[in-house]
Each structure stands twice: as structure tokens, then as C-alpha cells.
Amino acid sequence: MAEVGYGTILLALIVSVYAAAAAWVGQRQRRPEWVRSARNGLLAGAGLTSIASAMLSYLLLAPDFRVRYVYEHVSRHLAPVYRLSAFWAGQEGSFLLWLWFLAGMAALVALQEKVWDRELHAHALVVLALTEAFFALVIVTVSSPFVTLSMRPAEGSGLLPLLENPGMIFHPPLLFLGYAGYSVPFAFAVAALLTGQLDDGWLRGIRRWSLLAWLALGIGILLGAWWAYVELGWGGYWAWDPVENASLIPWLIGTALLHSAVMQERRGMFKVWNMVLAILAFVLCVFATFVTRGGIILSDLHGFASSARPITYYLLAFLALTLFGPLALLYRRRQQLTGDNELEALLSRESGFLLNNLLFCGMALAVFLGTVFPVLTLIARGERIALETSFYNRTSGPLALVLVLLIGICPVLAWRRTTRDKLLRGLVYQAAFALIVAVALFVLGIRELYALLSFAVCAFVAATIVSEFYRGLRARRRTRGEGYLLALGRLVAKGRRRYGGYIVHLGIVLIAIGVTGSSFYKNEWLVSLRPGEEVSIGDYTLEYENYAIEVVNANPETYQSKVRLATTLGVYKTGRKIATLVPEKNNHWLLQNPWVTEVAIRSSLKEDLYVILGGLEQDGLASFQLVVNPLVDWLWMGGGLLLVGAVVALWPYADREEAELDQALGRLAPGQRQGRGR
Amino acid sequence: MVLVIGYLIFTGIQGSTAPYLTVSELRSRGASIHERNVRVAGVIQEGSIDWNAQEMILKFEIADESGRLPVVYKGLRPDMFQDGAQVVVEGRYTEGGLFEAHNLVLKCPSKYEEAAVQP
Questions:
Q1: Is the residue at B117 inside a domain?
Q2: pTM of the model
């Protein structure tokens, strides 16, 4: 079985190298049958990697401990779903998942023959096939999950308990889906540079791909934050750990790309910029893989002897190639990439987009610098100095605030130029609403300047978005006499890109509210209680009811074997029992770091009560860290809206006419394209 | 705008790199040291841990090449807190020679991966 899995990857390597060569030669010598053969090669690659993935899934589920990867990540104590999720628990499996998604995307692109210009398409297939070959090569040479042991152990060592969490079922695959997804914009950007077809063709074709990759990455990041919140047990959801940052950086660049692509589509501007962003987004995905799976750990916390392994060099070489190759091409083509239009006025939709791009790239740069700072100081001064998390808050905080504010201003800015009066008139109601919210919050006791500012900005933006919906609704009702719900449904259905975008923006506002509330108004208490005692914090009274100390999964010994220390707390609010919480602390004695905390959370829209069991003595004396985290639920709700909005924007139209209508609806003033100075 | 971003990053870096001090540096810095927030890295000394679960007060000593330092911390005892562990303490060095930590960071191999066990 394992040998078959390895064999299929080896075949996938051969097939993808062949596909790259066939597509290249076929294009050069004008032989369409060769390009067709390359397409078939990519389809075969997708089939082969699917077989390999099915094999690994089978081996994990069985579980077949003769396979080293299975032995290292699975035990019989694990539920089937976590045996399956062990697929991406380690480096080898993660690379297989990367390859599998990549091969799937490449095959889908290969099938899009009708959509693309032939020359552009063939070149993109070359790039995709080569990328696929690289990952297959890594697996075949240094990172195969199909390596077998000389004997079959009776039991596996098991999954790290931290990974035995629902968040870990979806978080890594979504990230890898995003990473693999950005290979498509990258491939077409490089193809456009190679062929010299530098008009908008490549960019229009990748819109859905880049939105899909952005969505997968965004939801993946949020699920990672959720996992950290419920599983790592320190009371927060984002620690600016290099591993987290690594996935955030390409997302920020990808978000910039989504916006700047609109600028090229509508106004023929930002051409070089779009090229650079499409390339960077993918390069940074490779960088993220390098940080998390490359064998070098950048963090100051992980003060382990970080040894460079073969895979480190593979990834470094690939990083250099994907970054400098396209940049050299871009330099060669720089003359052909001049914009059709210049920025005409400071007050215009264009300058809003420009600012948006600067802010996203600035944030990405700040996070990137913070992440690699220890390496920079290691090179410059011979020692690792890590930045404190305050660095990220100081840089990203203000930038993010301005970005959110822009969401609220941009819909009011017209393309090309807006007069100041028009702008002010368009913003007056939202600004008044924001002011009312700020005053109300001040009266309610919110005195932190930044928090007030942030909430006011969120109110302002929410008001703009709601009024945009209202304007559309009113127009439909007036012209067609539709009821509110029907009008809303049709409005969104007819203008999916525009209203999908608004829904996403509303999701961002909810996330901003959640981040503000939980960053500024988090409260912590430390208490130690004996069974039967109670304590009052905030609006809550907690009664320590009882405790249990027991051994779970003792035989055979795996990572899932543990001494479970559990306490039961009754939570009361205004005299009524509202919840029973069971915070635990488990000692997985086989692990080098045996203690794993299982927090208990009682969520509401207003706040989370987050209980960490710090320690439990034999006689029941327990120490707790109690955290009240305001508005955390808003983050997850915002994530839901993000998903809904992006799906709306991605949803294909049944016919062409409607799609064109959607395009037209997105423009405030018709016919900007005519204004281009060709 | 580019300037603003550059400024934010620059001042951010300046404000966020609290240097590590060694124990002897701490002692030789003079009175000004007692008002500042500093970080010291060291190894938790064998047998020095005194954990009061009732009051949640953790007393211990760390040492680097230049000397030993008694530390007091109020809070939960971190999971990996044990003799011989590498720790970074952040806080204030008091006149009495005691270090009052408000933050403990334990250096761990990795949060995400465990060294593979050989059969």
C-alpha cells in the first residue's frame, strides 16, 4: 500500500515534468496536440495525487503502523475523524496535501481551454506543472509520508493532544487550499510576462481564483485563531506568533490584489502593481510553508536548536526562483506596463484604492519585518532579538483603523474626481451616527480613546454599508414595486460582486468590533478555591462544585494517555444558574511537555467567560485564571459574513447578460473605459 | 502615507525591543534600573521552586553565567515550569535584590511539533 502511494507521487513528478515540457514545446512550435497532451498530463497528475491521498487516508484510518508517518501521528485511541486529520498533522502529510490541492487546481485550469487565450493558457500550464513538479520532487526525495519501518509496532505514538480539536480538522486544509489557490494568479502573471500579453486578459481570468484563494486563506486564518482561543488556553486568539503571521502576510497581499485588480479592470491603472501583488501573494505562501514546515523556526520562543534540513534548502531555492525569476521578467517588460490613466484628483475613488493598497502592503511589510526580525538581528549583530507583540499592535493597529475607515468613505467617492461638498454631503449622516454612538459609549463608561475611536469608525462604516443597501432597495421598490425582501434578494442577486463586497466589508466591521472589545476590555482574575467555595467576578458568581482526578486511555500508552484533572464550576448570573463549566488540565505523560490545558468557555454576544484551570492539588484545592473577554463572538460572526459575502461574489451567473449587468452596476458613472487615453 | 508607514514601523521597532540583561548587568546598572521594565533570561535552579498554590505565589531562582537571581511571580504556575527549564522573566528589579516578574516566558521546543519518538 505505502509503496503504491510513493509510486504514484513518483509518477506524478514524471507526468508534471512532461506536462511542462509538452506545453512549452507545443506552444513554441505551434503544435496544439502537444499542449493538449500537457493538459492530459496535468489531469493525470491530479488523478495520481488523488490516489496517493486516498492511500494515506486509508493507511491512517486502518491504522497501519508499519508506515512511519502513521506510527508517528496516530493511535487507536483516536476517533476516526482525528486519524484522518493526522493527514496534515506533520510535515510529510502537509506537503502531500499542498501537492494534491495544487494538482487539482492545475487540472481545473487545464480544463479551462475555452476561457483563456491559447498562448497565455499554455504558458500558465508550464508554470503550474513546474510548481507541481517541485512539490512532487520534495515529497519523493526528502518528505515522503509513505516511508515504512522495518517492523510493525503494535501501537502508534498518537496525535499531539493540541491537534485533537475540531479547529484542526479544517484550519490547515483551508490554509493549504489558499496557498495552492494563489498558484493560479501567479502562473498567469508569469505567463503574461512571458508572452507579453500584458493587457487585462490575465487579470480578468484570475478574478475568481484569487477570490477563492483569499476566502480559503481568510477563513483558515480565522479558524486558526479560534483553535488557539479554545485550545491553547491563554485567553487570547492571536499571539503574533511567526506561524500565525506567516499565513496572515499573503492574505494581506491577496486583499491588496483583490482591490487593485478592480482598479486595472475599471480604469487601466496599477498594472505593474497588480503583477507584483499576484507574484508576491504566491511567493509569500511559499514563505509561509517555509516558516511552518521548513525546519527553521524563527520564533524567539522556540529556542530550539533549529537545524537546517534538506527541505530547508529546497524551499529556499524555490522561494528565490519564484521571487527573482518573475521580477526579472517584470523588469524586462517594464516599458510595456504603463498605466492608461493617471490619478486625476486627490478626492477620487482611485486615490481611495491607492491608499487601500499602500495600507495593506504597509501592514504586510510590518508583519513581515516583525516575523523575520530575529533573523535580521542574528545576521547583523550575532544574536536573536525578537520584537514584543506591542510592535505589531503599534504598527498594524493604526493602519487597520484607517483601512476600516476607508471602507466607509470609498462608496461615497466617485471615480475620477469628487468635489469636497459632494463628499461631505455623502458622509454627513454616517458621521452623525458615529458621533452619537461615540457619545453613547462614552456615557456608558468607555473612556479609552483608541477604543472609542475604533467603535465610532465601525459605526460610521456600518452606517455607510447599510445606506448603500437602502439606496439600492429604494430604487428597486420605486421602479418595480417589489416588497422589501424580494427587492433585497434581487438586488444582491443582480449585483453579486458589489453587494457581495459590501457583505464582506460588514464582516470586517464585526471583526474590528470584536478585536477592539477583546483587546481593550479584557479582564483577568486569579483565584484559588476549595470545593464548595464561590467567587464573584464581574456579573458572574462561580461556585466550585466538585473535582475529578482520573486516568484515561492508560493502555496501551500513547500521546492520548492522560491523567485528567477536571473541575466543575456552576456559573450564576443575577441568582440564576446559566451554565456549568468543566475546565480541565491533563497530563499526557508520554509528551515532553505533558501538560495540556482544556479551557471552558461560556459565550454570549456581550462577552465570553473564559476559565483556565491552573492547577489542582490532591485535596481539591484548585487555582483558576478567570478571563472576561468582551465581544469575542463578533469575530466568529464576522468570519461567517466574510464567507457569505465572498460566496455571493463568487456565485456564477446563469447567462452572459446578467454578468454584464453586474459589471455595469458596479460602476457609479457609466463609460469610464471610454475615457482612456490609448 | 509611505512616510507614515515607515515611521510607524521604525518607532515600533524602537519601542518593542526590550533588551535582555544578564544578572551581573542588572546589579551593576545602578539606581536607574529599579524603575525600568527589563527582561532577564536564565535557567531555573534545581530545588529553588517554592509554589504556594493557595496564594498563587511562585518563588524561584534563575541563573546565567554571571550569577543567581531570586524571582517572585504572582499568577498561575506555567505548565512547563520545572527545574532546569529555560525561562525569560520580565518585570522590575527591586532595591532589595528581588526580581518582581509580571511575565514569565518559558522557552519550549515547539508549540506545534514534538520530537519524533523512535520505536
A1: no
A2: 0.92
